[in-house]
Predict the structure.
Amino acid sequence: MSLTLAPRAVPARLTTLWKVVAGTPANAVLSAVLAALILWSLWRTLAWGVLGSEIRPDPDACRAAAGACWGAVVERGRVILLGRFPASEFWRPLFAMTILAGAVCTAALPRFFNRIGLAFTVAGLLAFMALMHGGPLGLPVVTSDLWGGLPLTLFLACVACFFGVPAGILLALARRSRLLTLSWLATGYIELIRAIPLITLLFFGAVVMPLLQPPQAQWDTMARIAFCLVAFEAAYFAEVLRGGLQAIPRGQYEAAHALGLSPLQTIRDIVLPQALRITIPPTVSNVIGVIKNTSLVAVVNIYDLTGSLKVALADPTWKHFTFELYLLVCMIYLVVGAAIGRYGRFLETRYAMHGR
Amino acid sequence: MTRQTAKELTLQVLIGLSPVALGVWLAGNLQANLAARGLTSGYDFLLDPAGFAITEGPLPYQTGDSYLMAFLAGAANTLTVSIPAIALTTLFGALLGIAAISRNPLLAGVVRLYVDAARNVPLLVHVLLWYVLLLTILPDATKPFVLGPLFLSKAGLALPHPLTGEWPRLGYFGLRGGLQVSPEFTAIVMALATYSAAYCAEIVRAGLQSVPRGQWEAAHALILTRWQAIRMIVAPQALRVILPPYISLALNTIKNSSLGVAIGYPEIVSIGTTSMNQSGRAIECISIIALLYLILNIATSFTLAIVNRRVQIRER
């Protein structure tokens, strides 16, 4: 009858917590060390980032301060955010970015998963280009080599996804086509693109593409780089979708055939909606990957967020406060990535395939 | 039926011919552009002397050797950064992945935070940040920071040579002898390792969690400790799930080593772009880079596919 003697004083959840944190001596030591480490780094962050920091954009005051120099962020932040865009026209990239982000976020609402959302996105992209370039609106012309910063990062990522996803869908369908030459071509393209690093493709866009385009119809660098980003991401989106297409049972095709649907209708109305649903998680991580990949355009001298970080650091007055500026850029990428990740989880729960 | 087949056949021929047409069009443009710029084409430049130096690497390349040698030296350097990077990725990734399924919420939480942060920041930012940190935090080469057998300074990392066993000595202008590693090398290896380790941790965690609960419970019933259960029961089964994504992670790490170009580490892409500027043979240089990566990719996936086949369950 020992059961009746068992102590029942502590609620079960607390005992479980105590057990996982300090159940065994080794675990208790680990928890203590980790807790001390976490507290220490919190304290150091506070001491560096708040208590000893300097907010005035004054390099001498910053050098005297014990902690972070947020003045550098205040002073150079504009360059990081907007790149080399002419200072008198700074409202244009900010406004253009707001329009683009607003249009894309609206189109991302499930109720706009239709022609209206598509129109919004196209309008957002066109408005962005018009405002940045300025020509069609009667504003002073700013050529695309002066575009930069966060607006450019978001624009390139939007372009890469907007054209890359449909191109990827076509490639994935082509790879699974019954027409052998089509399937071979798609497979060859996808495998070639996936074998080489994006940087190589960007150098191709920057240096080789001008040699391959007709002399009388040359694109500017920004257009070529955007084209290469699309060409690269399409191959990756295609591979993600191929996984989804392979998961659709044969019976779905046969059922569609039995209902008298044409091959095009079968793909559009039966297969693709299911395949896209299954592939929401990998597609979302691919989209976050696209944002990170756009940072590589900095290597071919296009001043996106990462590229303009390099521009901002080139100023000798502020070059001692590198870490603060890097922190700003990292935080921007983290926030954008986290936001897309959260949106992805929302899509996943909303469109979860409930297995029967 | 025959009409259907004939239609498909024509379509196939047309599709097959379209890249040929595209190629002819591009070749025409190329000729016009090259003629307009007074450039020549062809791979004959590979045997010409390359007029640039390569600062480091396992191959004995010297300024004035052929472009071919320069490309080989670049490919060797790509492997030289990729191998330690993949080794460190595997080590950190395995440790982080095991820590991520720890029942200790503090440990699991810290790992989660690291994995999420490291994965959401672009690799290029990792690379630049490591490089800046190495160049600003470390002391000058004349007074290196000594950590056991490791000597860290702005000139990079020096350690006892693994083959000859010779230790670095502090000379008048910094360290001499031993195995000297440049800050560029250290930065790219550490950036690749810290970035890829986060992905590797996720792969390991998913693999460990894919093993059915019954296996854990059975191990527990056999009074194995949690660590023994992971090592002897769960990990061998998880390996089959882990290996395919791990292979593509390793391939990605090789491709990602091309970011060395951003901080001046002389790997393939860096050598290729320098050769492109020097020789003016843009298409040729890009195609050589692509070819070398294709070869590296095929060789790696072939080797790892053999390993993969050996660990998969053979069904009767």
The two ends of chain A are 47 Å apart (CA to CA). The CA atoms of residues 161 and 287 of chain A lie 7 Å apart. The domain at 64-85+142-350 of chain A is CATH 1.10.3720.10 (MetI-like fold). DSSP finds 15 helices and no strands in chain A.
